[in-house]
Input
Amino acid sequence: MKKTWMTGVLAVAALLCAAHPSVAQDKGKTAAAELSSEAQAALQQLYASVPLAKELGPKATAILVFPKVTKAGLGIGGQYGEGALLKGGTAVGYYKTTGASVGLQAGGQQYGYAMLFMNAKAVEQLDNAKGFEVGVGPSVVLVDEGMAKTTTTNTLKDDIYAFVFGQKGLMAGLGIQGNKITKITPKC
Output
């Protein structure tokens, strides 16, 4: 049992450390520009595959896009990714998303996700938090394929809509509940 647990911890640590160097630790403006570009490209990928996201995007006050989140686990799991907050198509801030879990899980995967902040109050809570935790504060609705096909913008009334996209790899269960989002500052 101890050996399996330790193997899980080491596997998660290795995958998360290799996932992506932090914008805060990289070359500042160059890394920020690259992350901004990746976030904008990922948002276009989401818009191309999910018409509801494309319809909601222009109505959002801001969109937080994590182009690549790496999740891995073997008994103990973790995830990490970096993204950009876009307002009017321009990056105005950079964030990291982290999460940990314990339970029956094995595997690894990468995916992207976008959070569409539908009002200024929701964005304000992200900006004022020392670590915005998904599921605490403004209501966050994870839009799955079925909901995306049967929902119209007239029926949507929540603060934040989250879309997961571009999943690669194999891991049971995917959600963003409990993820912690923290602002990062590029060093110049």
Summary: The radius of gyration is 16 Å. The helical segments are 2-19, 29-49, 51-56, 120-128, 145-150. The chain has a mean pLDDT of 75.
